[in-house]
Write a structure and sequence with these properties.
The protein is α/β, with parallel strands linked by helices. 41% of the residues lie in helices and 14% in strands. The protein has a single domain, classed as TIM Barrel, CATH 3.20.20.60. It has twelve helices and eight strands. Helix 2 links the parallel strand 1 and strand 2. The structure holds 3-methyl-2-oxobutanoic acid (KIV).
Length: 263
Amino acid sequence: MKTITINTLSELKRGGEKFPVVTAYDSTFARLAEQAGIEVLLVGDSLGNVMLGYSSTIPVSMADMVHHTAAVCRGSTKAFVIADLPFMAYATAEQAMTNAAALMQAGTQMVKLEGGAWLAETVAMLTERGVPVCGHLGLTPQSVNKFGGYRVQGRGPGEGERMLEDARLLQEAGAGLLVLECVPRELGARISAELAIPVIGIGAGTETDAQVLVVQDLLGISARIPKFAQDFLAESGSILGALRAYAAAVRDGSFPRPEHSFN
Ligand code: KIV
C-alpha cells in the first residue's frame, strides 16, 4: 500500500471510489489492517468499551488515547491514522489545541471530535494551526446521556436539516473528513452528496463515501453486535482474511446492505 494522506482520501471521493476504515487500538491490529489494504485506521475512544470494559466512552482519558495512538502508529507505516479526542478534552478551544498536540505528537495524522456548529471555531483554530480535523455527527457516543441512550439520530422534525447545516459548518471551518453515525439512510446519502469532503458512515446507510466499523464488531467478537455490522471472520476464517473481506465489500458496495441501514 502506498502512503495514504488526506489528499488520497479526497481523490477517492472525487473519483467516486468508496474506502474502508476500521478501528485499531494496538500495533498488531494496525499492522494487520494495513496488510489488508485498509487506508484509514481510527483510534476510537470506543476503546473504552471494547478494550477497557467501560460501559461508555465517557471514562476514557487523554492518557488512554495517547497510549493507544502511539501503539497504533508503531504498528502502521502507510495508513492514515485518526485519533479521537475523548470526552471533555475539547470543551474549550484551548483544551482542544493542547490535547490535539499530544495526539499529533503520539503519531496521529488527524484528530476527531464530536459535535456540530458549536465546534466550528475550534475546528478552524486547529486546522489553521496544522491539525487536520475529522468531525463526527449523528449518534455521538460521548453525548449518550444527553440522548437518553444509543438512539438513531436525525429522525425528528427539522433534525436532518440541522445536521446537514452542522456538517456544512464543520466543512467550512476546515474539517477534512466527517463521520456520520446511526442516522437514516436517506440523510446519510444527502449529507454525503452535499459535502465535498469524504463522509465516513457507520449505521448511516449505503451511500456514504466510506465506512467504518469497530474491529471487534467485524470479527463478531463484541458482546453485542450492532445491526449495522457484519461478522466477516465467520466467512473468512482468519483475522487478516476478515479484514480483507471487509475492505473488498466496502469498495465494491456489497457492504453495507440495506438491512444494515436505518430508515
Ligand atoms: O470511537 C469510535 O470507534 C468511533 C467510531 C464508532 C466511529 O468514533
